[in-house]
Design brief:
single chain, mainly alpha, about 80% helix
């Protein structure tokens, strides 16, 4: 909406909307951190269960079924975590595009300037985007679960 069509409260309302939107972008980042903690807790719990199972002897069907379930669940959790990280990245990207657009009507475009100073995320020497690093964690953590899954399938069929 154009400033002239809105009325005299345009600047006041724009500033309030901007502050609210920046706060919501910050909350998304906090939620992403909480989501990461959630997945780390679940995967750590599975690893603890795995260490208990490895400590027991024998390869009976129940033990193999539990090991298979741990491998499968761990793999699926890593995949879902990876998807969540990408989703949060897309959401934050959109939010900051909107914030930058709003700053065009404000006196000082601080977020836009910050992004330009950081090379817009294209120069890793200036700024290495957290989600680019963060997305490798579930990939790396999925390896032992995938190996466990393959191992249990192999044991069942020999």
């Amino acid at each position: 909406m154009k400033k002239t069509d809105y009325g005299e409260q345009y600047n006041v309302h724009l500033l309030e909307q901007y502050k609210l939107y920046v706060e919501m972008a910050d909350r998304i980042s906090i939620r992403r951190g909480q989501t990461n903690k959630f997945y780390i807790s679940l995967l750590s719990g599975l690893l603890a269960l795995l260490s208990i199972m490895i400590g027991t002897e024998g390869f009976d069907d129940i033990r193999l079924t539990v090991l298979f379930a741990i491998g499968f669940l761990g793999t699926v959790l890593c995949l879902v975590w990876f998807i969540n990280i990408n989703s949060y990245r897309q959401l934050n990207t959109a939010k900051f595009k909107i914030i930058n657009k709003m700053e065009e009507s404000l006196p000082y475009p601080c977020y836009d300037l910050e992004w330009k100073l950081l090379g817009q995320g294209k120069e890793s020497k200036k700024y290495l985007q957290l989600t680019r690093v963060e997305k490798y964690i579930p990939i790396i953590l999925s390896v032992p679960y995938i190996l466990l899954l393959g191992y249990t399938i192999y044991i069942w069929f020999i």
